[in-house]
Amino acid sequence: MKKYFDVLRKCPLFAGIEDKNLLSMLGCLNAKVEFFDKKYTVFTEGSPARLIGIVLSGSAKIVQVDYYGNRSILGRVQPSELFAEAFACAEATALPVSVIADEPSEIMLIDCRHILHTCSNNCVFHQKMIFNLMKDLAVKTITFHQRIQVTSKRTTREKLLAYLNIQSKKAKSNSFTIPFDRQELADYLEVERSGLSAEISKLRREGVLESNKNKFRLL
């Protein structure tokens, strides 16, 4: 487990936890590390929500598919980031999303019950970890509301510009890289890829932005 410490130090769940406590904490949590090939499903929509995932290497995307097979990408998870924690804490009987590896990935899996219920060892760091989890959930709630602000826009142009403005503020620069390719961005914005590509070309001609694949610059 020590080889993952550089990543885990950046994980919100372990913020403020000293290295000397981290190894014993992982043992207390019965944390497991599993490898997933590209496009392998980590969590399947409809399965019981029990585990929390932490990406150690690679990346994964959170997707939802409706009755007609239309895919929406709700987010992408990078190394040190958590996923499925809200559903696990709520003890949801069925996950409303799937989590799919974007590339060969190592993922740590933790049973949420080991976090929410203190162990018999009365670990001094357990309360800190619960606080970290609640803070992470609050941050994710804010991010979810930002996505609603984007997808609730009426047109593809409005959705795209709203999303790019949020990414620009996040990067604190008018030049930034987004975590999606064109199809994934269309799925995230809930628009057609052809319409999205046409709108990006139009905005380039109008001098509103410059773009190259997933790199953008707002003018």
What do you see in this structure?
The chain has 219 residues and is α+β, with helices and mostly antiparallel strands. The protein folds into 2 domains: 2-142, Jelly Rolls, CATH 2.60.120; 153-218, Arc Repressor Mutant, subunit A (Orthogonal Bundle). It has 8 helices and 11 strands. The protein has helices at 5-8, 19-28, 85-89, 112-116, 126-151, 156-171, 182-189, 193-205, and strands at 32-36, 41-43, 51-57, 60-65, 71-77, 82-83, 98-101, 105-111, 175-177, 209-212, 215-218. The protein has a 4-stranded antiparallel sheet with strand order 1-8-3-6. Strands 2-7-4-5 form a 4-stranded antiparallel sheet. It has a 3-stranded antiparallel sheet with strand order 9-11-10. Strand 4 and strand 5 (71-77) form a beta hairpin. It is elongated.
| CATH fold-level assignment of the largest domain | Jelly Rolls
Assigned CATH class of the largest domain: Mainly Beta
User: What is the CA-based Rg, rounded?
Assistant: 19 Å
Largest sheet report: 4 strands, antiparallel
Average pLDDT metric = 90
Q: Strands of the largest sheet, in order across it?
A: 1-8-3-6
Backbone structural class? alpha+beta
Which CATH architecture of the largest domain would you pick? Sandwich
Tell me, what's the shape?
elongated
The proportion of strand residues reads 15-25%
Q: Output the CATH homologous superfamily of the largest domain.
A: Jelly Rolls
Proportion of helical residues: 25-40%
What is the topology?
Elements: H1 5-8, H2 19-28, E1 32-36, E2 41-43, E3 51-57, E4 60-65, E5 71-77, E6 82-83, H3 85-89, E7 98-101, E8 105-111, H4 112-116, H5 126-151, H6 156-171, E9 175-177, H7 182-189, H8 193-205, E10 209-212, E11 215-218
Helix pairs in contact: 5-6
